[in-house]
């Protein structure tokens, strides 16, 4: 029997998608609960029922795009048999997010702009980064265990992998003509395999 | 004879410094010309004489922190005799900026948040990244010429160097307990020398 859709989940998802559209169009500084309610096609009362304020929505949007990235990484790396191809799949999924659709970076750049002066958003951002490093750490740890990678410090290696992927994603976001996504993938693979590969 | 200070330059510098303090305290979304004038201790008329609007000030602030980073890189790498130590000096100067004072990232995160939907700020950010890659490319090119580095594609290699430094700077900005700056420097060196070193 198919699971019934959860109407609350759908409604809050719609609000999050409307938030991302608003952020892409005019940034967090122009986001108001009134504009967002109009974009989402709900009343301001309904909007406030789901989210206390625009900071709470930004936090939910960050969770949403992180979940989405996780799903893409899992789908891309399913059935990969060794550490190198799992790492390669992860790089590909992350760079696709930076270039094919910009939702992830739209949300995170808004989050960063606020998190420097907003401790609650800063801790959400910090936790998102911890989660990303843990996911990468899992791939590296398995690769080390199975003999694909050098026995590296997992925390340090995952910070470096995340740094390179983040950094090149930013440059591709800022300048789409810098290089092809395929080229960026290959360069990340080269740099990272020279570091942790055997 | 010492050069006389340029009063216009000093005044606009004071406004930029006040902007950075405002951004650090409450972000671009809360920045108004009125608040900024009060912070800088100037009238709104004077503020408008120097800068058309808060976007123009954000652009000027980005130029200011980029110039400051350039000076630090140059001072750190002066008298270094080979490519490896010049690259190491550049990494050190960039990571110091990410951790010792947060001005650079305060300005750039504000700029990113706006540049996704503001073409003028996007092109300023894109040019800043081009300038950073060119500076790194100069160090790599000289190192290749003098036999310290492998003969790599300069554009691609400088994109990767910048990516790693940016990415780890972000993680250190978000989470000061992730690792020491010295550790981050050593890891960047390891990863990059494994990629382009001889």
| CATH architecture group name of the largest domain in chain A | Orthogonal Bundle
Give the C-level CATH assignment of the largest domain in chain A. Answer: Mainly Alpha
Overall geometry of chain A: elongated
Ranges of chain A where pLDDT stays below 50 over 5 or more residues in a row are: none
How much of the residues of chain A is beta strand, in percent? under 5%
Rg of chain A, Cα atoms, Å: 19 Å
Number of helices of chain A: 9
Structural class of chain A: mainly alpha
Number of structural units classed as domains of chain A: 2
CATH topology of the largest domain in chain A: Tetracycline Repressor, domain 2
Give the topology string of chain A: H per helix, E per strand.
HHHHHHHHH
Instruction: Specify the biggest β-sheet of chain A.
Output: none
Distance between the amino and carboxyl termini of chain A: 48 Å
Query: How many E-type strands of chain A?
Result: 0
Major interchain interface with per-chain residue totals: A-B, 50 and 50 residues
Quaternary structure of the protein: homodimer
The helix content of chain A, as a percent range, equals over 70%
So, the CATH homologous superfamily of the largest domain in chain A? Answer: Tetracycline Repressor, domain 2
**What is the residue-mean pLDDT of chain A, rounded to a whole number?**
93
